[in-house]
Amino acid sequence: MARCTIARHMSCMGLAGVRRGRKCITTIPDESAEKPLDLVNRQFTADRPNQLWVADFTYVSTWSGFVYVAFVIDVFSRFIVGWRVLKTIQADLVLDALEQAL
């Protein structure tokens, strides 16, 4: 039988396979905290380079544990113009990526 067929049958019966490893919780959201404004109204387009940059940070699993990565991306070219990687999450992570982009 195909793996997807077995998964579907197990799902119908309420069964789940064993998951190896531990579940890592990296973020505990604060629902009462203020949310940042959407200054571009979800319009991620640009007519020329350096007109609009977007930034994000995330975590990546490595053999030695998690690392946190911040990116600054030019929307027009879709190139990464600044980035930074740290083992611990700090405000400097995003600020260093922005400084590199500038």
Q: Count the E strands.
A: 3
Largest sheet: 3 strands, antiparallel
Low-confidence stretches: none
Number of helices: 2
Q: What is the typical, i.e. mean, pLDDT?
A: 89
Helix content: 10-25%
CA distance, first residue to last residue: 55 Å
Strand order in space, largest sheet: 1-2-3
Give me the strand/helix succession.
Answer: HEEEH
Tell me what portion of residues adopts beta-strand conformation: 25-35%
The backbone outline, from C-alpha atoms, is elongated
Gyration radius over CA: 20 Å
**Structural domain tally:** 1
Structural class: alpha+beta
Topology:
Elements: H1 3-12, E1 53-62, E2 65-74, E3 80-86, H2 91-101
Antiparallel strand pairs: 1-2, 2-3
Task: Provide structural commentary.
This protein is of the alpha+beta class and 102 residues long. The mean pLDDT is 89. Strands 1-2-3 form a 3-stranded antiparallel sheet. The longest helix is centred in the C-terminal third of the chain and has 11 residues, at 91-101. 21% of the residues lie in helices and 26% in strands. The protein has 2 helices and 3 strands; from the N terminus they run H-E-E-E-H. The chain has one domain (3-26, 45-101). It has helices spanning 3-12, 91-101, and strands at 53-62, 65-74, 80-86.
Supply the key terms:
alpha+beta; 102 residues; three-stranded antiparallel beta sheet
Q: Can you give me a brief rundown of this structure?
A:
This protein is α+β, with helices and mostly antiparallel strands. It has helices at residues 3-12, 91-101, and strands at residues 53-62, 65-74, 80-86. Helices cover 21% and strands 26% of the residues.
